[in-house]
Amino acid sequence: MYDTHAHVNFNAYKDDFEAVLKRAFEKDVSVINVGSQLSTSARAVEMARQYEKAYAAVGLHPIHLEDMEVEEEHANFTTRREEFDYHAYRELASQEKVVAIGETGVDFFHTDGEDKIAKQKQVFVEHVKLANELALPLIVHCRGKKDNIGGAYVDVLKILQEHKPKAGGVMHCYVGPAELLKSFLDLGFYIGFNGVLTFDKTGTVEKSLLATPLDRVLTETDCPYLTPPPFRGKRNEPAYVEYIVGKIADVLELPIDEIKKKTGENARALFSI
């Protein structure tokens, strides 16, 4: 199995990351730790050096483009504004076992104001340029406002169509309109499913899964966030990706082993693992 989007490189695991990774590896789960700023990207690269089944993605998350207080499940933190240093990220991304650029994209949930949104889009395009220069896939974060979730996905799609990632990528934690899926798939993108699939009462994510070809489905946790049952309310971790695999199997009415096999093949194909 593959957790294609984890954050064991975050401070939430600073005291026990070795034990967390060990639990994942014991379940034969390979882990891609995803950076959100220069420091966590560097930590992801270092973990990839240390562990055979760990890989890294490097990027600057849109919420780290400004100073803000952020409240998330199992994590309240203050972001410190960081400018996107193309050359610094290029150097990191050139290291061994870096398999993607990201996460990058837009976050209108935490950000308001035309200037700040324009900055997010500009930096997003810079990430696409870096991914294309290094022939790496892109990990895209997209989060819309509560009253207009789909609007952010429309904006992201337009940017990706105008600045096409040559190596494709993944729409991480896809909660957008199912009707936009084909447009992302046409760009060579995979769709990432995580714990939201297991507890979304609206049925939106399940609908998106049913609309996604199995050869474009990726499994992820986004740990420490979005913990699936039976661990809701606790910190998430890569070992719990098995519950995402199980839910996908239930929704698609396919054997778990088939989902493990296919999503593993998908991860290896996109990230050249």
**Order of strands across the main sheet:** 1-2-3-6-7-8-9-10
**Low-confidence parts lasting 5 or more residues at pLDDT below 50?**
none
In round numbers, the mean pLDDT is 94
**CATH topological fold name:** TIM Barrel
* CATH architecture name: Alpha-Beta Barrel
Protein name: Hydrolase TatD
Organism: Candidatus Falkowbacteria bacterium RIFOXYC2_FULL_48_21
GO molecular function, one term: hydrolase activity, acting on ester bonds
Keywords: Hydrolase, Metal-binding
Give an overview in words.
The chain is an alpha/beta fold and 273 residues long. The protein has a single domain (2-271), classed as TIM Barrel, CATH 3.20.20.140. Helix content is 41%, strand content 19%. It has 10 helices and 10 strands. It has helices at residues 17-26, 38-50, 86-93, 114-134, 149-162, 181-186, 196-199, 204-210, 241-252, 256-271, and strands spanning 2-6, 30-34, 54-58, 68-72, 75-79, 98-107, 138-143, 169-171, 189-193, 217-219. The strands form 2 sheets. An 8-stranded parallel beta sheet has the order 1-2-3-6-7-8-9-10. A two-stranded antiparallel ribbon has the order 4-5. α2 packs parallel to α3. The longest helix has 21 residues, at 114-134. The protein is globular and about 45 Å long.
